[in-house]
Amino acid sequence: MFERFTKDAREVVQGAVEQAERARSSSVDAEHVLLALLDREGSRASFALASLGLSGERKQSVRDAVAAARRRAGLSQAETDALAGLGIDVSEIVARVEEVHGIGAMSGDRKDKGWWSGRRTFSRDAKGILERSLRTAVARGDRHIGDEHLLLALTAGPGVPAETLAAHGVTHESLLRVLYGGGEAKAG
């Protein structure tokens, strides 16, 4: 499948691996793909994000939201709200775990452990993003998978990346309008 990736898409995948390494995570997650996309400049995905108002401080806001979700063990805000409806206060659970085990203990990152020297695997969600990007490219009649297909794949399913981007005005529909529908779209 990777032979169909453009240079930009390959750089996003490599950037996701580097994001996982910096976080000392043993696997590459969908959130790492999103963070790698946010670092891109001069590509179709970066153009689409900028067209929807996601640049500068707003990109940092997305990074902060992803970090907050990782602190909640990867739970999306919707999942956190659903648990709250059942009387489960995720913030309280995180606070208690971090009180005993340290800040970020629920993130899955390995900050307090030895350096992970093995090859990082892709989590089920990250693999799903790669597969969905292929299906997106094929459905659009594109011969290659670009970073814009990775971005579209992130917004097409549930989870922290899609929820975070939607909260910042970047939805699957708005991306489709920017990328394929004349270049104009309204945020949200």
Automatic annotation (TrEMBL):
Gene3D superfamilies: Clp, N-terminal domain (1.10.1780.10). The keyword Repeat applies. Coiled coil: none annotated. Keywords: Repeat. This is Peptidase. The keyword Ribosomal protein does not apply. Pfam families: Clp_N (PF02861). Residues 2-188 form the Clp R domain.
